[in-house]
Amino acid sequence: MKTCVIQMNSTGDKSANLEQARRLIEVAVAQERPDWIGLPEVFDFLGGSRAEKFAAAEILRRGPAYDLCAELAAKHGVFLHAGSLLEKNADDERLSNTTVVFDRLGREIALYRKIHMFDVMTPDGAAYRESATFRPGDEVVTYQAEGVTFGCAICYDIRFPALFQALGGRGAQAIVLPSAFTLQTGKDHWEVLCRARAIETQCYFLAPAQVGAHTASGETRLTYGHSLICDPWGHKIAMASDAPGYAAARLDPALIARVRAAIPVAAQRRDTFV
To answer: Under the phi-then-psi rule, with left for phi > 0, alpha for psi from -120 to 50, and beta for the rest, what region is 7?
Structure first.
């Protein structure tokens, strides 16, 4: 299976973001002919004020970002893991940070809502409080694509290994982590965490990411980029440059089987610790 992770520089202009996503997917399809494409976290809208986020959010299955991804999946005959988009909840004062996955016919086959909220202060003193705008999901999600089981996670989820162990327990062979990792944390933690999650789950790890500057509530913030694909041994087999673009690599189920046979951690695991 040929896969492609798209790297974007989304901003507070939703129309421009959707056009950027369309253009990058069209380029990737023309140059790589992938079977599967992944977009980054909040590809449809990044930054802005709380009010602007709510204005840009969509009722699920009733908005332009959702429609665009369904359209492009069907047009190009690819599986499209639509990063995440801002989902409006009719019964809640907070949004959801939501992944939707489409099959080659443009049909929805999976839905995942980010579980872990990014409530931190980064080393440069910038404060992030995702839980003020987003409510966490509570479901572990996998889906099938041409015989490969994919697991879903988003950005800050990467720091919580139990989620990835749960995905492995549900048969995941590849895990997808659309992200908007900050520059301050990304430069030290991004690659090592991606490789660690690949090694411990013995899965391919696909991480499409945001890159560059965006403005949030009047402040300029930077995302790290470096979208990458790791193999089940933890090798980095593809990485994007420091600009919008993509990285592509093939997934080999036989390699997954060889790695798991060589180091059979799933069979040896003992869940006896408190």
So the answer is: beta
- Which phi and psi (to 5°) does residue 35 adopt? -90, -25
Q: Which residues contact 153 (CB under 8 A, 6 or more apart)?
A: 112, 163, 164, 167, 175, 176, 177
Output phi, psi for 267, to 5 deg: -75, -25
**Active-site annotation, residues:** 41, 114, 155
CB atoms within 10 A of CB 64: 15
**CA distance linking residue 101 with residue 247, whole number of Å:** 19
Backbone angles phi, psi at 165, to 5 degrees: -65, -40
Predicted structure pTM score: 0.96
Identify the bridge partners of residue 151 per DSSP, sorted by sequence position: 142, 175
Q: Which two tokens stand for residue 28?
A: 């990737």
Query: How far is residue 24's CA from residue 154's CA, in Å, rounded to a whole number?
Result: 21
Burial state string for 128-167 with b = 16 or more CB within 10 A and e = fewer than 16: bebeebbbebeebbbbebeebbbbbbbbbbbeeeebbbeb
The per-residue pLDDT for range 220-259, each reduced to its tens digit, is 999 999 999 999 999 999 999 999 999 999 999 999 999 9
Amino acid found at 89: N
pLDDT at 37 over 90: yes
How many other CB atoms sit within 10 Å of the CB of residue 127? 9
What would the DSSP string read from start to end of 56-101? H-EETTSSHHHHHHHHHHHHHT-EEE---EEEE-TT-SSBEEEEEE
Residue 218: predicted pLDDT: 83
